[in-house]
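Design request, tokens follow.
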């Protein structure tokens, strides 16, 4: 039964494009003239429709939450979201999903980056595929910065419509959401508090443990400064997960010549098991993340790290009592070697008010015995 279901899904998924293509319910301002459909395609289409009906009948969450509320959206357009490899959370937000999947096929996609961000942050990731052309800046940059630390980034690499700032200069001046190409650079290069782990020291520690560092992921890496430093100083390739919260972080990382991954914290890392030498969690990983999300995240970090690889927790903050009772034990369950474990009071107003502390830790994954 399980295998049949998978085969069915594969069959349907590979045929879905032809289904869309043949479907006549799609609304388009200039509907193409009908072309005669060969018999074998019609038979195939009927099989696909029957299969999909079968599947959706056996998918209670999709039929109960998405079928009725927005009958304005042609069912065909949201079908891919029901059978494609997307998170079931998409169907927990039928209105957003319907808005996202309401577009005119084969034309330019609606400009809806906020809607996409909202869906992703609600766990609807990966987003369903669409058959429209995504917008790109109208005058793409004709040259790109030669360094990972350029004094400026080309503004023409971003569609600015949805932001109040219309340039990178404006973003770094107004610094609305910590948008700064040099953010945390000093704490990664100099030791000024016990929470700091300068890169030279980290690389030295790894070297003396015979643990070469070449590939990694920086979780919640903002504009990619950590990846930039690792590349520039040590030829280490870091992927940077980053969301576009109120600023074009993904574009900034890309314009620096680094790889942005547009994935939320609850998303499985799109890399294979045991392939990373280092995973770093920046300040985006903190007590505001639901505990269950965090637990799954740490186990996914463990999945992608190779034996002997490092988990670097950089300035994780939480209430002192929670670090002791909840987060410390959670991290401890990974069974990693504590190379560094430094806790210090968080002394900004919010930290003082809530009795918060920072944790900076470097943990090494053991090499498995089998
Ligand atoms: C990085 O790699 C390039 C090309 O292999 C080499 O020329 C450069 O010296 C390396 N830089 C560092 C910091 O290792
Ligand atoms: C940190 O804060 C706690 C409680 O707020 C206080 O008792 C402790 O002395 C502080 N530690 C340092 C090193 O300031």
């Amino acid at each position: 039964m399980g295998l049949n279901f998978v085969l069915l899904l594969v069959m349907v998924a590979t045929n879905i494009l032809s289904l869309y293509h043949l479907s006549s319910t799609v609304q388009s301002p200039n509907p193409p003239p009908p072309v005669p459909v060969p018999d074998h395609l019609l038979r195939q289409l009927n099989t696909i429709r029957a299969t999909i009906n079968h599947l959706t009948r056996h998918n209670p969450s999709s039929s109960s939450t998405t079928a009725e509320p927005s009958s304005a959206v042609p069912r065909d357009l949201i079908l891919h979201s029901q059978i494609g490899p997307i998170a079931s959370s998409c169907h927990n937000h039928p209105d957003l999903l319907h808005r996202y999947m309401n577009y005119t096929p084969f034309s330019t996609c609606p400009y809806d980056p906020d809607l996409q961000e909202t869906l992703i942050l609600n766990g609807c990731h990966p987003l369903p595929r669409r058959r429209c052309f995504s917008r790109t800046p109208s005058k793409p940059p004709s040259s790109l910065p030669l360094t990972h630390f350029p004094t400026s980034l080309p503004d023409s690499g971003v569609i600015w419509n949805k932001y109040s700032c219309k340039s990178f200069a404006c973003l770094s001046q107004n610094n609305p959401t910590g948008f700064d190409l040099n953010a945390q650079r000093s704490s990664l290069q100099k030791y000024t508090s016990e929470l700091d782990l300068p890169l030279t020291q980290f690389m030295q520690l790894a070297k003396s443990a015979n643990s070469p560092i070449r590939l990694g992921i920086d979780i919640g890496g903002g504009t990619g400064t950590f990846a930039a430093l690792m590349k520039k100083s040590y030829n280490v390739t870091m992927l940077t997960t980053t969301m576009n919260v109120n600023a074009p972080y993904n574009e900034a990382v890309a314009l620096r010549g680094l790889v942005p991954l547009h994935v939320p914290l609850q998303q499985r890392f799109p890399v294979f098991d045991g392939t990373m030498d280092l995973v770093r969690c920046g300040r985006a990983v903190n007590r505001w993340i639901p505990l269950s999300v965090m637990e799954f995240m740490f186990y996914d970090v463990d999945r992608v790290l190779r034996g002997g690889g490092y988990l670097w927790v950089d300035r994780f903050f939480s209430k002192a009592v929670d670090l002791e009772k909840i987060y410390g034990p959670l991290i401890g369950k990974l069974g990693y070697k504590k190379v560094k474990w430094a806790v210090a009071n968080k002394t900004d107003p919010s930290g003082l008010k809530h009795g918060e502390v920072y944790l900076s830790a470097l943990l090494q994954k053991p090499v498995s015995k089998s």
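Comment from the thread starter after seeing the answer: thanks! The radius of gyration is 24 Å.
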